[in-house]
């Protein structure tokens, strides 16, 4: 899992009005959620571009006024009209403990059903996994080479070393659909 460093400052005022003033100054209101409770802080909006506008999942090294911790981004709220960043929630974790995070899925290989005239359809973009953050990959690579025409690959068919998949075993990851060309004319 890639790492990202972020610096923040504690936030004294709370509420809509205070958050609106912070955003006008180029700061984004955030919460750090842990077993001990929640801590409100702010970060600069320009520091968040590489963190938010990517498909990568990061372990974040947070430094809030000299207090360092590791966290993952749990939720990002965007404005409905101009999609400006409104609020972020981070989840603090201990590097020795397991974390739960959604990881992007990458389909790899040329399916046998596609060679027969079918169409490969990727059903999910992310899968939720549980594991130590050091063992979590940037992407879950799913090989579809053996996938035949009319068949599908489910979460229950997948195995990843040192990771536990938390999605339902019946969720379809990818399938090969029959097309007109594959059925004949």
Number of strands: 13
* Largest beta-sheet characterization: 6 strands, mixed, barrel
Q: Specify the CATH homologous superfamily of the largest domain.
A: Ribosomal Protein L25, Chain P
Roughly what percent helix?
Answer: 10-25%
Oligomer: single chain
Mean pLDDT: 90
Domain unit count: 2
Low-pLDDT segments, ≥5 res: none
Global shape: elongated
| Major sheet: arrangement of strands | 1-3-2-6-5-4
Rg over alpha carbons? 21 Å
Find the structural class using helix and strand composition: mainly beta
Task: Throw out a few tags for this protein.
185 residues, mainly beta, Ribosomal Protein L25, Chain P, RNA Polymerase Alpha Subunit, Chain A, domain 2, 2 domains, 6-stranded mixed beta barrel, 11% helix
What does this structure look like?
By secondary structure, the protein is mainly beta. The chain folds into two domains: 2-93, Ribosomal Protein L25, Chain P (Beta Barrel); 100-183, RNA Polymerase Alpha Subunit, Chain A, domain 2 (Beta Complex), CATH 2.170.120. The chain contains four helices and 13 strands. It has helices at residues 16-24, 49-52, 112-115, 180-183, and strands at residues 2-10, 27-34, 37-44, 58-64, 67-78, 85-93, 98-108, 119-122, 126-132, 140-143, 152-154, 164-165, 172-177. The strands form three sheets. The chain has a six-stranded mixed beta barrel. The protein is elongated. The termini are far apart. The mean pLDDT is 90.
């Amino acid at each position: 899992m890639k790492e990202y460093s972020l610096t923040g400052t504690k936030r004294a005022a709370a509420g809509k009005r205070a958050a609106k003033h912070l955003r006008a100054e180029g700061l984004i209101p955030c919460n750090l959620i842990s077993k001990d409770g929640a801590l409100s802080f702010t970060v600069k909006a320009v520091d968040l571009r590489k963190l938010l506008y990517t498909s990568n999942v990061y372990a974040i090294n947070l430094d809030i006024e000299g207090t360092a911790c590791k966290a993952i981004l749990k939720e990002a709220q965007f404005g409905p009209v101009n999609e400006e960043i409104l609020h972020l929630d981070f989840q603090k974790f201990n590097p020795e403990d397991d974390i739960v995070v959604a990881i992007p899925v990458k389909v790899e290989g040329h399916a046998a059903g596609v060679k027969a005239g079918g169409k490969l359809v990727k059903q999910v973009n992310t899968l939720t996994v549980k594991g130590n953050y050091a063992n979590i990959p940037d992407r879950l690579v799913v090989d579809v080479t053996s996938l035949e025409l009319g068949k599908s690959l489910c979460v229950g068919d997948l195995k990843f070393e040192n990771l536990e998949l938390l999605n339902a075993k019946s969720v379809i990851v990818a399938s090969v659909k029959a097309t007109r060309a594959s059925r004949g004319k």
